[in-house]
Design brief:
Layout (H helix, E strand, L loop, with lengths): L8 H5 L2 H11 L5 H22 L7 H34 E5 L5 H25 L8 E10 L9 E11 L10 E2 L4 H9 L3 E4 L17 H6 L6 E8 L7 E9 L6 H10 L1 H12 L3 E5 H4 L6
Antiparallel strand pairs: 1-8, 2-3, 2-7, 3-4, 5-6, 6-7
Length: 299
């Protein structure tokens, strides 16, 4: 005979108590003003209950009704504040707005023109310090997030290069690179929303790149072996401080040992980079859950 299951109660069955727990956990994250309001409004119902529980005090019916309505209103207010705080806590972690891949043809054409200008500016500035520099040795690309179809990464979201956004990248395998968020200088710039200057290690140890980039042998084999440095700009969404919609890279096949040269170059093209970020931010987008993005953490 089947054992009778214990009665969990109405609240447990419908997630009532777990919902209350979630709301209460939001209280420490509230602002000082919100905490004061919650405590003040929460004391009123407690006061009402205390008053009607005192022997000998019998408020008239109209007073009871009035106080009951006020208590319900105050409780509703407290719950609404806690819900607002709880949603504010979870919203930034629920998803990232990812522009539709690829952008439409008109936008791609405009972005490629701007990317070519940035690359040309970079070449002109570096050529001053590096006589004999060849135009083909300064390259530029843009990585955008896309859902991979087919292959061993089928269904995963990776940072890829659209063919229109690969300038002077002449190795077919390199144009097929796929980085997870947090992988390679591109993936870290996308994840953290920070500018990066990356150099190939002069004395290779465990590969040609720092361990924090989590480069696999397969990815290393795809990269141009003459690549010396990469300047990575996260393309930040409008009105955000660190949410990237893509990554723009300028890199070089020649050695530029002075960091100041590359950092000054980055500063000089920042406005044009921001223009590209703005164009991508205005594209239609999809909210992709962070649980689907497979973000890689630092080693």
């Amino acid at each position: 005979m089947p054992r009778k299951q214990p009665n969990r109660g109405f609240g447990n069955k419908w997630g009532f108590f777990s919902g209350i727990k979630d709301l209460l956990s939001a209280f420490p994250q509230a602002t000082t003003a919100q905490k004061v309001a919650i405590v003040a409004m929460g004391l009123a119902p407690a006061t009402f209950i205390g008053m009607v529980s005192i022997p000998g005090i019998k408020p008239p019916p109209w007073a009871l009704v009035t106080m009951f309505v006020v208590v319900i209103f105050l409780l509703f207010f407290v719950v609404s504040v806690l819900v607002t705080v709880e949603r504010g806590m979870s919203a930034p972690y629920q998803c990232r707005q990812v522009p539709t891949y690829p952008p439409d043809e008109r936008v791609r054409h405009a972005i490629r023109g701007a990317l070519n200008e940035i690359r040309s500016d970079a070449f002109d500035q570096i050529a001053v310090k590096s006589p004999g520099l060849k135009d083909a040795e300064i390259r530029a690309n843009i990585f955008l997030l896309a859902k991979i179809q087919g292959g061993k990464s089928d269904g995963k979201w990776k940072l890829v290069i659209h063919k229109d956004f690969a300038i002077n990248m002449n190795l077919p395998a390199e144009r097929q690179l796929q980085f997870a968020i947090g992988q390679g200088s591109t993936g870290i710039a996308y994840r953290d929303g920070n500018y990066m200057l990356t150099r190939r290690l002069r004395s290779p140890k465990n590969g040609d790149w720092e361990l924090k980039f989590q480069m696999t042998p397969e990815l290393e084999a795809q990269i141009e072996p003459r690549l010396k440095w990469i300047v990575s700009f996260p393309l930040l969404r409008l009105n955000t401080t660190s949410e990237a919609v893509g990554v723009l890279n300028i890199d070089g096949l020649n050695d530029v040992p002075d960091d100041d040269v590359l950092n000054k170059l980055a500063t000089s093209v920042r406005e044009k980079v921001d223009d590209i970020a703005k164009a991508l931010s205005l594209q239609p987008s999809t909210c992709v859950g962070f649980d689907q993005l497979g973000v890689m953490e630092n080693v």
